[in-house]
Design goal:
Number of helices: 9
Organism: Halobacillus naozhouensis
CATH superfamily of the largest domain: HUPs
Strand content: 25-35%
Order of helices and strands: EEHEHHEHHEHEEEHHEEEEEEEH
Structural class: alpha/beta
Largest sheet: 7 strands, antiparallel
Helix content: 25-40%
CATH topology of the largest domain: Rossmann fold
Pfam family, one: FAD_syn
GO molecular function: nucleotidyltransferase activity
EC number: 2.7.1.26, 2.7.7.2
Catalytic activity: FMN + ATP + H(+) = FAD + diphosphate; riboflavin + ATP = FMN + ADP + H(+)
Bound molecules: flavin mononucleotide, adenosine-5'-diphosphate
Radius of gyration: 20 Å
Distance between the termini: 47 Å
Length: 278
């Protein structure tokens, strides 16, 4: 998948010739709600024979608008890009979210980031907002599209157990350590991608440096599956309040310490902090 970084204001030379169908949103986690949206966008792109693109933002708007520091992510950008590609996205626009971009009125976003980028169909969820003070919504987008050369498709709310599936909900499930519930929201277990810290790993006990600011479950003992690209091993992740210190994974086999990346999938919480520190 091609990744195109966009910074505001856009350079005119960026206007792509090829037309595309664009899914827009932050998409942290690429959960089942996001997946419905991307699958619908893919159906349209296939029908119309256009490229399927996604547009996301970096960092999260709250880091800029609410000056939130140390925000944690379900999918830091590289993991999000990989997951979007897996669902068929061929191109990803990553707009650097800064104060200048945040101040853009909704109408200007439509002109500069939808029409100028040659987007023929914008696919968003029912609660999508955009533009200065988040004043633009799906109704506004649809109204504007009537006089402009693009269509809008709005995806209905995807729920689980009557609640909207959202990144916020998923984060609280993971924070609480209820990792066995994650597949109901995400379609798979929660996954953290990291590098093996070779200096601090010994045999079957490995230390991992996550790639990006991943949200981690609360401290405790977790059953995990560790994949090194070739093999899947079962393991136990002893997660302490700070991953840099005592946290370690004991795997039931030897992992090649020189593999570039490993994936850790959290399957079950075995016990909470009291047990690991005792
Ligand atoms: C051009 C633009 C300007 C934005 N300005 C603001 C803003 O001033 N305040 C705000 O809370 N969010 C702002 N946002 C963020 C959106 O409200 C929204 O979070 C973002 O488009 C991602 O959509 P999603 O949360 O539905 O994924 C802006 C988004 C865009 C595209
Ligand atoms: N449960 C859902 N059902 C349908 N669309 C959704 C759902 N969750 C998010 N979306 C849509 O996906 C896009 C990205 O949303 P985002 O704000 O990143 O997700 P979340 O609400 O999970 O934080 C938006 O267009 C949003 O409306």
């Amino acid at each position: 998948m091609e990744i195109v970084r966009l910074t505001h204001p856009l350079k005119e030379s960026l206007s792509p010739k090829e037309s595309h169908v664009m899914a827009v949103g932050f998409f942290d986690g690429v959960h089942l709600g996001h997946q419905d949206l991307i699958k619908q966008a893919k159906r349209i792109a296939d029908q119309e024979n256009r490229t399927l693109t996604a547009m996301t933002f970096d960092p999260h708007p709250d880091e800029v608008i609410k000056e939130e520091t140390d925000r944690k992510y379900l999918t830091p950008l590289p993991a999000k890009a990989e997951r979007l590609a897996r669902f068929g996205c061929e191109k990803l626009f990553v707009v650097s979210f800064d104060k200048a971009f945040a101040s853009l009125p909704p109408a200007d976003f439509i002109n500069d980031y939808v029409i100028s980028l040659n987007t023929k169909n914008v696919v968003v969820g029912f609660d999508f907002t955009f533009g200065y003070k988040a004043k633009g919504d799906t109704e506004y987008l649809q109204k504007k599209s009537l006089k402009k050369p693009f269509n809008v498709t709005v995806i209905p709310k995807k729920t689980y157990d009557k609640e909207k599936i959202s990144s916020t909900l998923l984060k609280s499930v993971i924070r609480e350590g209820h990792v066995h519930l994650v597949p109901y929201y995400l379609g798979k277990h929660y996954e953290v991608i990291g590098h093996i810290n070779t200096l601090r790993s010994r045999g079957k006990t490995i230390k991992v440096d996550p790639i990006g600011r991943y949200l981690l479950p609360k401290p405790g003992l977790y059953q995990v599956q560790v994949k090194d690209g070739k093999r899947t091993l079962q393991g136990l992740f002893r997660l302490f309040p700070s991953i840099e210190e005592e946290s370690e994974i004991t795997v039931n086999g030897l992992i090649d310490p020189h593999v570039n990346k490993i994936s850790i999938q959290f399957t079950n919480e075995i016990s909470s902090t009291a047990m690991i520190s005792g």
